[in-house]
Amino acid sequence: QVQLVESGGGLVQAGGSLRLSCAASGRTSSNYRMGWFRQAPGKEREFVARIRGSGDSTYYADSVKGRFTITRDNAKNTVYLQMNSLKADDTAVYYCAASTTAYGYDSWGQGTQVTVSS
Q1: Who has the most CB within 10 Å: 13, 50, 59, 84?
Q2: Is there a contact between 79 and 21 (Cβ–Cβ < 8 Å)?
């Protein structure tokens, strides 16, 4: 079992930046694919970004491409999401997730709120 704890959310003006962190504990592994998802009020949860265990491959939703960057520090068991040029549409609860098997993301954090004021 992997426990994930997100932090770094908050209130920021449009055009600003935030960096989210996701600290993993328990049965951690640098082999796990890690991802960020978000859920805005009244909307379904959506994929934001993911990174492979080695950190050499990343993938982003079109809506954040060029503005968000996902990285990981396996020595610290932490994944980051650097968010720049934030827009009001980025307002959501952001969740970190780990894929410990081949069957998708099976461990989730509790989420951190990001609010972007326009």
Answers
A1: 50
A2: yes
What backbone torsions phi and psi does residue 69 show, to the nearest 5 degrees?
Answer: -135, 125
CA distance 22 to 81: 9
Token pair in block for residue 15: 């055009």
Cα separation of 25 and 118, whole Å? 36
Residue type, 107: S
> Rounded distance, CA 48 to CA 111, Å?
13
The residues with which 64 forms a beta bridge, in sequence order, are none
**pLDDT tens column, 79-116:** 999 999 999 999 999 999 999 888 899 999 999 999 99
Return the SS3 of 18. Answer: strand
Six token digits for residue 53: 């265990």
The Cβ of residue 78 has, within 10 Å, a number of other Cβ atoms equal to 18
Q: In this model, does residue 55 exceed pLDDT 80?
A: no
